[in-house]
Every structure is written in structure tokens, then in C-alpha cells.
Amino acid sequence: MDFVSVHGGHSGQFCSHAENSLEEVILAYIDHGYAWVGITEHAPGLAPHLLYTDQQELGFTPETLRQRFARYMPECRHLQQKYADTITVFAAMETETYSGYAEHIDGLVAEFRPDYIVGSVHFVGDVNFDYSVEKYQEAVVKVGGIENLYCRYFDDQLAMIERLRPAVVGHFDLIRIFDPDYREHLSLPVVAERVERNLRRIKALDLIMDFNLRALAKGASEPYISRPILLRAKELGVAVVPGDDSHGVANIHENMERGIAILEELGFSTNWRRPRLIAYL
Fold it and tell me: Domains (ranges, CATH) in the chain?
């Protein structure tokens, strides 16, 4: 069994809520003996009100973020080659899901040509719900209640999957981040049917689900994907691969062995699937 991270490697060099240089991040993966890692830097935002909350607070603009991302990709390609004899590095991108995202992501993929994309949802109703309890509640109010929030999240996730066809679906049930009653809400029939629908579509498209361990680092009792959903993914034969979603050297490999033990216990293969790379003409 190899150590891998299908969704990892944010660095302080290119992400305002991370730490350390990208090279330091890659060297840390090497020190921990990783066979491969996807560096999945956030796609630059589309409009001022659609930036992550911390980016807005720091005074970033879509243009400054685009300029930073334009520095990220060549640096990642450089390090990919520099350490190719020691580790396989994928120069990837984590996408976003909000108003106008599809054409925006199309343009970024065409311009920067990432190896693959991680399809994530951090916004519902164009509110960055995972930033804080306050922003989460703002999203709840905007969409008309917690049940609607879950339904909208999984509907937006499916639309993103259909439109972008990402190699990796990021932190599948992130919508539970600030909800102490998430088990109850995930089991609501209108939510559970959406979870089942999305899992089946992920399987039909042969995508990878990110078993995202950052939840544990933030004090959650289980990773994203929560156990009932993980069990159903196993029954459907969905590929699940760990991702530490690291935001600096201190997070790299954090809870990885615990996460792998969970997957082993449930019978998932640890012959980890590599993400399907984008085929460019």
C-alpha cells in the first residue's frame, strides 16, 4: 500500500489560508514517503462577491487571484519535473460551484491545462457556507432552511458533476461542516434520495470520491465522506481515495493512517486509483 493524496497540497505561496511554499509542501510529501500527490490549488474566483470570504477580507480581486494562479501552474510544473524521480506530482486544480462557474472553469482549463480537476462545492446560493458558523447560517437563511440547504447543495453538486466531469469529487458531504445534527439531516428522505442519485452518477461516470481527512483536523468525528454514505459508495463500487486536503506542511499526512484504516475496515481497495488525466489536443 502506498501513501497518496488525491486532494492535497495547498500552499501559502498560492493560497491565502495555507502556509509554506509549494516546494516545502512537496518535500514534506516526499519525507512522508508518498508515491503520488495531487496539488489541487483553488481556481481563481470569478467576481468580487464570489471570492472566498478570507480572500475578500484580505483585499484580493479576481484579477490578483488570476495572476497568482498564473504563477502557480508553471511553478507546479517545474517542481513536478524537479522531483519526478522521487514522487509523482499532479498539477491539478480545485474548482468552484457558483453563478457562472462553468464557463469560467472551461476558460481556466483551456488556458492553464491542469492534469485534472477536483470538483468541489463551497458555495450555496452564492454564499461561502464553509467559512464560518455565521456564513453557514447566512446560507441557511438565504435558501429557506437547513433542509433546503442540503437539497440545494446536492443538486448543485450533481449539476457540477454533469457539467465539469471532474476526475475527483471533493469532500462529498461538506455541507455538514457546521451542522451538529448532520446525521439526521442526511437521512431525511429528500436528502437521502439526492445522495443516492449523486453516488450513482459518480459511479456511472467512473469518477473518484475524495475521502477527505481535513474534517478530522478540524475536530469532526469522521472524515468527509460520513460512514453511511461511505458504506453505500462501497456497495456501488465507487472508487474512494484518501486526500489530506493539506494547507501547509503541518497538515501533510495528518490523520492519513487513521483514514486508511477506516477504508481498509470497510473493504475498500488500497491499490489506489489514480485520477483520470485531462486529454488535451
Answer: 3-265 (3.20.20.140)
CA distances for 36 relative to 153, 234, 272, angstroms: 30, 23, 10
- pLDDT tens digit at each of 281 positions of the chain: 899 999 998 999 999 889 999 999 999 999 999 999 999 999 999 999 999 999 999 999 999 999 999 999 999 999 999 999 999 999 999 999 999 999 999 999 999 999 999 999 999 999 999 999 999 999 999 999 999 999 999 999 999 999 999 999 999 999 999 999 999 999 999 999 999 999 999 999 999 999 999 999 889 999 999 999 999 999 999 999 999 999 999 989 999 999 999 999 999 999 999 999 999 98
Tell me the C-alpha distance between 171 and 120, whole Å: 7
Report the alpha-carbon distance of residue 262 to residue 230 in Å, rounded. 10
Q: Which three cell numbers stand for residue 100?
A: 457562472
Residues 248 and 12 sit within 8 Å (Cβ to Cβ)? yes
Relative to beta strand 117-119, strand 168-169 is: parallel
pTM of the complete model beyond 0.85: yes
Residue 207: DSSP 8-state: P
| Calpha distance 254→213 (Å, rounded) | 8
Amino acid at 97: T
